[in-house]
Write a structure and sequence with these properties.
Helix content is about 10%, strand content about 35%. The chain is mainly beta and about 675 residues long. Among the domains are: about 115-150 and about 160-170 and about 270-300, no CATH class; about 180-265. The strands form 9 sheets. A 14-stranded parallel sheet has the order 1-2-5-29-32-35-38-41-44-47-50-53-56-59, sandwiched between helices. Helix 2 (about 50-60) links the parallel strand 1 and strand 2 (about 70-75). The longest helix is centred in the N-terminal third of the chain and has 14 residues, at about 50-60. The radius of gyration is 27 Å and the shape is globular.
């Protein structure tokens, strides 16, 4: 399924990079330079902030030079303790962009971290006594206060440690995976349609491991306390090791707690028992770490800055070829403005998102690798829903993986919110929850490859939206979703239109070994057409939940959200004609869904609920018949020219165009 070349996508990327200051004035920045220098190659500036200020001086002196201005950074690490802020005053123009780029062949790091250089052996007998016997003599200590680092945040979100450009593990138990709640002692029971639990964060565990934690003052737990799609971190209030009861501090989890759900404990010095784990004594400012290798060669770094770059009201600025890393929050935040671009960058090792773009128009994040983020990858929002004016933002050609390290649920690789956004040709994999989450209208989600997501959740979707009649017009087409089976293989969803979500097209996609591959949760006016389903169990799910257990949403959330939009004005009636009379047209019924010209082989095709079936139009689907694949043994699901599906109106899927451009990794 990997493509060897994608001419059209290459053209898009080249077009986005065009006008990046070719022929414009170049300002040079290099470690060892000085921000009092003129920014020439012989006398470079020292920091990106110095480059920004030099651009401001050029603009203040007169019009921008023809071709704009390039701020070219030489290889090296540029540490910053605070966010670098760009404003409208730092903007370029359509034919004269301001470009911040890495020098050719150079690795340029914008780092929100501080190097830790003062590790020493642990000699304190009290500390040694708390450590696991195997860790004694291997755990080192570093005085962060001596390095001038005094703001640590909390164990629930704050300073992190990175080594060999990878996030290290805050000492935890168990070392991997989870333990289960064995009993509840809160005293305020709850019952959600037969699923029983308790509202109070007071629960039981098995075994005696917590007896080792005597003297620990800042223990936390992280768990999926009631549903497996909603997690939360809690600071521990007390542990009764005799009765095996953990009590957490409020606020308690909104859904409560129930037996059998899973959690782990962390921020425990006594659990620093293997290489790669660390612990911070926040009162003393002392960092403890068991390095996986020689600390002098691993570049131990702690995150200090809240973020790295903020652009508010800027236009026509390009960030190109840079590495953003080691911040506690989001690397790049762009608010309003137009035609801003982040291209060919590496964005990693963060506590927040890789990039967040809100408002404005025509922004793009392209060709980047984003990984090891604490939250999601790229968040795009913009456009106006009432007027259906599109923002035109896009995330294209990015490799996003191993995200959601800290906030594990509802922090997708790509989030789309608003009107007229696009996610295309991205490769997304290895994450605890969803790949793409969308809300709003008229988005295009196409040509993406997604696998190994929803690894810690089951009632979840690789591509997800939910609970709104008015958020229509999105097209999900020509994507390849494979090997998506949920937490512990219990099953999740490929494309999940949850809780009466409507008016979405799922067409021309390939689903391979995906549970509940295409899912309509009681919604209306959706089309599932021209898809290929291979070994999916089931390929298709449609239900009528609003006529049953979810009916209370119809007169509450659904109607409230409907009336918040001008759904009966001329524009909306022309764009979404089936929405106009929805309140008088059995709004709870899943009407208008069409399932046509799909191919399904292996697994199970039909998961349509009996109450929904009468509302669905089925037409020309090829089910459990040989579709004449070009080469299934190598997961080549293109249909041969003699496929019987073509006689039923099936249209060829451009499989060769799915995923990243040639040369980027696929796993």
């Amino acid at each position: 399924m990997r493509m060897t070349s994608v001419v059209s996508f290459c053209v898009v990327i080249l077009a986005l990079a065009a006008g990046a200051g070719a022929g414009g004035k170049i300002l040079y920045v290099a470690p060892g330079g000085s921000d009092t220098n003129p920014g020439t190659k012989d006398k470079p500036l020292a920091t990106p902030a110095g480059g920004r200020d030099a651009v401001r001086k050029i603009k203040a002196a007169g019009p921008l030079p023809s071709g704009g201005v390039i701020v070219e950074l030489a290889g090296g690490t540029y540490e910053q303790a605070a966010v670098l802020a760009l404003t409208a005053a730092d903007s370029g123009t359509a034919d004269g962009r301001i470009v911040y780029r890495a020098a050719a062949g150079a690795e340029v790091r914008a780092s929100g971290g501080r190097a830790v250089t003062n590790f020493r052996p642990v000699t304190d007998k009290t500390v040694l006594g708390r450590l696991d016997e195997n860790a004694r003599g291997k755990v080192l200590r570093a005085d962060l206060k001596a390095l001038g680092i005094k703001d640590y945040g909390s164990a629930g979100g704050g300073l992190e440690l990175f080594f060999q450009d990878r996030p290290m593990t805050l000492a935890r138990w168990p070392d991997e995976g989870f333990v289960k709640i064995t009993g509840l002692v809160g005293g305020k029971p709850k019952n959600v349609r037969g699923t029983k639990g308790d509202k109070i964060g007071k629960f039981m565990y098995a075994g005696d491991r917590p007896k080792r934690w005597a003297g620990e003052k800042d223990i936390w737990v992280h768990g999926y306390w009631f549903w497996d799609w909603s997690d939360q971190r809690h600071k521990v209030d007390s542990i009764d090791t005799a009765r095996r009861i953990i009590s957490v501090k409020p606020p308690y989890h909104g859904y409560g707690y129930r037996v059998g759900q899973w959690f782990y404990a962390f921020n425990i010095l006594a659990e620093l028992d293997r290489p790669g784990e660390w612990y911070l004594d926040r009162a003393a400012g002392v960092l403890y770490f068991w390095p996986p290798s020689d600390p002098a060669k691993g570049k131990p770094t702690v995150s200090v800055a809240r973020g790295l770059l903020s652009m508010r009201g800027t236009s026509h600025i390009t960030l190109q070829g840079l590495t953003f890393e080691a911040a506690r929050g989001t690397a790049v935040s762009i608010e309003d403005g137009k035609a801003n671009r982040v291209t060919d960058c590496v964005v990693r090792n963060l506590g927040g998102w890789g990039a967040r773009i809100s408002g404005g128009s025509g922004a793009a994040v392209t060709g980047c690798e984003i990984y090891q983020t604490g939250q999601g990858g790229i968040a795009l929002s913009g456009g106006d829903r009432k007027s259906l004016a599109p923002a035109g933002h896009q995330a294209a050609g990015n490799h996003i993986h191993h995200y959601g390290r800290l906030d594990r649920m509802y922090k997708p690789a790509i989030a789309l919110s608003g009107v007229g956004l696009r996610a295309a040709n991205n490769l997304i994999h290895d994450a605890p929850h969803m790949a793409i989450m969308f809300s709003g209208n008229d988005h295009v989600i196409e040509l993406n490859e997604i696998h190994r997501v929803c690894l810690e959740s089951n009632d979840a979707g690789a591509i997800y939206a939910g609970r709104d009649w008015t958020m229509r017009g999105t097209v999900i087409r020509h994507n390849y979703l494979h090997h998506i089976t949920g937490f512990r293989g219990k099953g999740c969803v490929g494309v999940y239109l949850d809780d009466m979500f409507c008016g979405t097209r799922i067409e021309g996609n390939v689903f391979y070994q995906v549970t509940r591959a295409a899912f309509i949760g009681g919604g209306r006016d959706c089309v599932i057409s021209n898809n290929i389903f291979v070994d999916c169990k089931p390929a298709l799910h449609i239900d009528a939940r609003a006529t049953g257990w979810a009916g209370y949403h119809v007169k509450t959330t659904m109607t409230t959200r409907l009336k918040a939009m001008p759904y009966q004005n001329a524009l909306w009636r022309r764009r979404y004609p089936k929405l106009f009379n929805i309140l008088s047209d059995s709004p709870a019924a899943p009407k208008g869904n069409v399932v046509a010209r799909n191919v399904s082989v292996g697994g199970r095709w039909d998961g349509v609920h009996s109450a929904a079936r009468k509302y669905v139009t089925f037409k020309d689907n090829l089910i459990d018949k040989d579709p004449h694949f070009a080469g299934r043994a190598k997961a080549n699901f293109q249909l041969r020219d003699d496929s019987p599906a073509y006689k039923m109106g099936f249209k060829r899927i451009p499989i060769e165009k799915i995923g990243l451009m040639s040369g980027r990794k696929s796993d």
